[in-house]
Amino acid sequence: MQSLALALALFLTSTASPQAAAPPPAAPPAATIDAKTRAAIEAVAYDYLDGQLEGDPARVARALHPDLAKRAVVGAGPTSREVFPLRRMSADELIELTRQGALKTPKEQWNRSVRVLDVTGTAAVVRVETPWFVDYFHMGRFGERWLIVNALWFNKPQQPG
């Protein structure tokens, strides 16, 4: 019985499709993302950025999934109980900070960029940057609408001045 099981196992592994062992296909280059999709994703990212820079909470809110998970990696302090500490922010908190004008900036000082890194089906990865922070978004498409579902951000060190 053992020899039959061994023979069957050898047969199955020797007849396995060569495709089964092949690595998954690489993500398509950003240049292959269709222009309409890219424009829709960029519009949402600019609502997020420009809404904060304008101090327009409604503009920021329309870019966010209501269950947004926004996080930043932070250094552990001497009393930190977390081994891998994160700063967590909800959609409501981000909208309120925008309402308070936390990042409101005169338009002539805006220096921001949006780069769509990858799109697969209803998921996209986007990098946005200002002089103060870099965000990496996971965006989802809900019908025809793209929304920011997750964001990992990094606060850039500011030069004294």
Describe this structure in words.
The chain is built from 5 helices and 6 strands. It has 161 residues and is an alpha+beta fold. Strands 2-1-6-5-4-3 form a 6-stranded mixed β-sheet. A hairpin with a 3-residue loop joins strand 4 (123-129) and strand 5. The longest helix has 20 residues, at 35-54. The chain is globular, with a radius of gyration of 22 Å. It starts with a helix and ends in a 6-residue tail after the last strand.
Structural class: alpha+beta
Shape: globular
Q: Within the largest sheet, what's the order of strands?
A: 2-1-6-5-4-3
The span between the termini is 80 Å
Calculate the mean pLDDT score and round it.
Answer: 85
Ranges with pLDDT <50 over ≥5 residues? Answer: 3-18
Estimate the strand proportion: 25-35%
Secondary-structure element order, N to C = HHHHEEHEEEE
Number of helices: 5
Helix content: 25-40%
Q: Give the strand tally.
A: 6
Give the radius of gyration.
22 Å
Query: Main beta sheet: strand number and arrangement?
Result: 6 strands, mixed
Walk me through the topology.
Blueprint: H1 2-14, H2 18-21, H3 35-54, H4 57-61, E1 64-73, E2 86-89, H5 91-99, E3 113-120, E4 123-129, E5 133-142, E6 145-155
Parallel strand pairs: 1-6
Antiparallel strand pairs: 1-2, 3-4, 4-5, 5-6
What's this entry about, in short?
This protein is an alpha+beta fold and 161 residues long.
What brief labels describe this structure?
single chain; 161 residues; alpha+beta; 6 strands; disordered N terminus
